[in-house]
């Protein structure tokens, strides 16, 4: 029967047909089989649903869930900080507030400082003062004349300008604050003037330093130069308004040295800029300065110097057994009076022992005298057996037929010599034995070979380098030539 109405409800009992025929009815009957199968399937589905529900409940309680990524959704960790670059955590409202508070405390670039909350304090921090809010001018709220003693009331021309206000002196003037009465040879700044030389090659000029200001007279020092280049004079005057009364002293310099006859006690001097390079005898100069021993003691001449290059520096030579001029290098000759520099190629330096060796003597390579012990262990192999073998029964060759002759004694029952005399001549013979063989039995057996206590010869092979060495790095030994 098809199209049965099915209800989504649980049936505790399943109806089965009761019949007397167990083939059709009963628990295993054909008629009840569909109902039983449906009941079994329903029970199986019920158990699976319960397992699924239980698994979902446990899953909701567990932490076994995927983490969120930039691509897939999932669990995320909350973070209230603002310094992490992790993209797998989510910001909390606290973190957002910190970021917003930080942003609100910043100045917006596009507002050009208009969002300053305390402009006077900002000017104070920048040390701008009140002048930052005032324009230069003569109207109200401007920086005007009289606000500062350094701001002049009237305009000053650039021509013939002074250094500062009326209380300060001007440049290159003989009398204080007066530009109209310049002495001959004095110079001033003026409009459209051609370039001038402060110290002209012709005539003279002088520079005065007044000891008393605002007066025409006073103690001053003047430097004057005449037309002869490099001829400088220094003059001093006191309480005179003009160049009269100067006491002049000629100054000697590089261009004008004093003549020898004028100062005979001064020999040819060294030029300061040459840094002693103009010494005629540097070695003697070092000696006169008392530096000879000091320089030698820095590294004594003759001492071998390990040098890490094949390029030997100037003033040195490689130590390779060569001769040298003892007169040209007297300090080196003190170390090597023979005039021969030791050959240090392939050699090391060893401290001279207390006795038995001379300085610069050579010692060939070798090992310290010593002994070795060597032996081969005694060996006793005892008695050894060979492998066993069995020759079995062996036969001799055939042949050998023979007979034996023997004599008898007459009238002797016993046939011996004690009872009768021997009968000579043709006597009795034994029966002939024909050709025959013999057998010999050699059963299973072995052989032994004795190897008693004995020794062996031990040969020690040679090993090592061509000479006795230690770990080393090759340097060139050089020596200073002096």
UniProtKB/TrEMBL annotation:
It is found in: Virion. Signal peptide: none annotated. It holds the Pfam family Collar. GO terms for biological process: symbiont entry into host cell; virion attachment to host cell. It comes from the Bacteria. InterPro entries: Phage_lambda_Stf-r2, Phage_tail_collar_dom, Phage_tail_collar_dom_sf, Phage_Tail_Fiber_Structural. Gene3D superfamilies: Phage tail collar domain. Residues 302-349 form the Phage tail collar domain. Keywords: Host-virus interaction. This is Tail fiber protein. It comes from Salmonella enterica subsp. enterica serovar Telelkebir.
